[in-house]
Write a structure and sequence with these properties.
The chain is of the alpha+beta class. The protein is 26% helix and 25% strand. It has 3 helices and 6 strands. The protein has a 4-stranded antiparallel sheet with strand order 2-3-5-6. It starts with 13 loop residues before the first helix and ends with a strand.
Length: 199
């Protein structure tokens, strides 16, 4: 899910974002909660996993099968991330089964910051991933585009269950891209990037 780049909030709200949240959270997911809506950049009621809508049309049965596998891996990583953020811990989430250690390191930093701040999330994001392209090389690589809606994914104080105050000017729905690599027979998320644009 290479190292996941961290994007600072847009100018004018960076101080507020740091003041109201203990850290910039996972790029492409909770990071958008601290972003500014005018600058652009991982929903539905609380339950199991992010909502998957549709995958992009594919030109052949083989490509369709491949795209389906890529989307399944991407969605699985989001499900595990959502679970991890809901308890500020990756333990028992299965993140390691679909997210590379490099990408996982950034997630673990975010979770550690959340634990120190006594914060977790409730609800879940809504995602709408589509396979942009698959490159067949020594290590096949797939690029996924997404529109992440964090409307019902809320950062809360773990003890009081009250929402953490966030800047009013922030992106709640934003575009993102992801890179996955085929490791043996399994697609693994290697990079997740929130874009500075709404969707």
């Amino acid at each position: 899910m290479t190292a996941t780049p961290r994007r600072l909030p847009g100018r004018g709200c960076a101080v507020d974002a740091r003041k109201h949240t203990a850290a910039l959270l996972l790029t492409g997911s909770l990071l958008a909660l601290a972003g500014c809506s005018g600058r652009g950049d991982d929903a539905s009621a609380p339950s199991s996993s992010p909502t998957l809508r549709t995958s992009s049309p594919s030109p052949s049965p083989t490509a369709s099968t491949e795209d389906t596998a890529v989307i399944a891996a991407y969605t699985s990583s989001w499900k595990a991330q959502t679970e991890a953020y809901s308890k500020a811990s990756s333990a028992g989430t299965g993140l390691r089964s679909n997210t590379t250690l490099t990408a996982l390191a950034d997630i673990e930093k975010d979770l550690s910051t959340m634990r120190r701040a006594g914060q977790v999330t409730t609800g879940k994001p809504q995602i709408d991933p589509k396979v942009l392209k698959v490159t067949h090389a020594e290590i096949p690589t797939a690029t996924v585009t997404d529109c992440v809606d964090t409307t019902n994914w809320t950062l809360v104080d773990k003890a009081t269950k009250k929402p953490v105050p966030l800047p009013t000017r922030r992106l709640i729905k934003y575009a993102s891209t992801a890179t996955l690599e085929l490791w043996g027979t399994k697609w693994m998320l290697t990079k997740l990037t929130a874009l500075e644009q709404t969707c």
